[in-house]
Amino acid sequence: MKVLQILPELHAGGVECSVLEIARHLVQQGHEALVVSHGGRLVAGLEAFGARHIAMPVHRKRLSSVFQVARLRRLLALERPDLLHLHSRVPGWIGWLAWRKLPPATRPRLVSTVHGFYSVNAYSAVMMRGERVIAVSECIRNYIEQNFPRTPVAAIRVVRNGVNPADYPRGYQPGADWIAGWQRDYPQCVGKRLLLLPGRITRLKGHPDFLRLIAALAATDPQVHGLIVGDLHPRKRAYRKELERLTTRLGLAPHLTFLKHRADLREIMAVSALVYSLSTQPESFGRTTLEALALGRPVVGYDHGGVGELLGQLFPAGRVPLGNEAALATVSRKLLADPVWPAPVPASLTLAVMLRHTLDVYHELLAAARA
After folding, report:
1. Closest Cα to residue 76, out of 59, 54, 44?
2. Are 355 and 22 in contact (CB under 8 A)?
3. In a domain, 170, yes or no
């Protein structure tokens, strides 16, 4: 097979990780993997394992992006991929508009993955136009069926994201060199009970709730130290300033550390007492939540969306009603005082199963085309 995946950029995030995992698996299985995006820090890794990256400005949420349709159509005609896989709405529109004008007998089969609880409108509906529509969780499948009723139920396939147990082994602890470097670079964290909020610096990730939680816990437990780890997009600098002002107002400077994007998030999760998922809008799946649970780390999260689905299955003790900051503090204090460990991750939530099911969707479409 030759599979072309398209997404906005390749910097960091759950969608980007999924695209890389699929591309790597395709190459390992002897197929050809192409990825179209505006580029980013993950391109080098993509190309290192044998996939091809084609840079196109398919990331801008503006009308001028339609000028990329003809360019992508020429690329599809030149490369003749067997499948076109859409992973986001702007590139989804570009991909769909390019695809639909190709001769039906020779154009690639069309797959789309719904990675989020998209707004219910015509703009989002393009992600339901794949010949197969992949939902990354059961709650996303339900969302599609309830809010995009024109999507044929027979076209939807649930393919839950998965974790590689070899990369996130239960009970993992970082090596001595990493520990020494961490203690050298962040002496304020030495001997503290670390509470970690991973995720991009955006409003929906619940940073203000986390800051107020750290303030409440630190008032009675000076050993508590909060960590915020996440990528900062240039357009989010004003929001970061808001968080810094709230940190100052709450007197959190001795109890909180902001870190940027980190390649060693696994190690940071492994040394944290608690990991949090506090998105105010439901997450479609909760990849970081699953990674932390796989390591055996307790996760405290708002009980909605994909995170609520994962916690209900693997760690019910960590569920908190959405926006209930009093319950958030109560659950955190309870787990710090009397730790409870998550259930082992089942085979159904492993990366191998996710990749096998994704390729099953590809093969199903190609078999239908041959028939």
Report:
1. 54
2. yes
3. no
> What is each CA distance from 195 to 140, 183, 335, in whole angstroms?
29, 16, 11
Bridge partners of 320?
302
Number of domains in the chain: 2
- Is 85 in the same domain as 183? no
Closest C-alpha among 342, 360, 356 to residue 168: 342
Domain span at residue 203 reads 176-348
Query: Which segments of the chain does DSSP mark as H helices, in order?
Result: 14-28, 43-48, 68-79, 89-100, 122-125, 138-147, 176-185, 207-218, 237-249, 265-270, 287-295, 305-314, 325-337, 351-370
Separation between Cα atoms, residue 215 and residue 278, nearest integer Å: 16
Tell me: pLDDT of 156 over 80: yes
What is residue 368's predicted lDDT score, i.e. its pLDDT? 87
When pLDDT is averaged across residues 33-54 and rounded to a whole number, the result is 96
Residues 105 and 123 in one domain: yes
How many Cβ atoms from other residues are within 10 Å of residue 314's Cβ? 19
- pTM here? 0.88
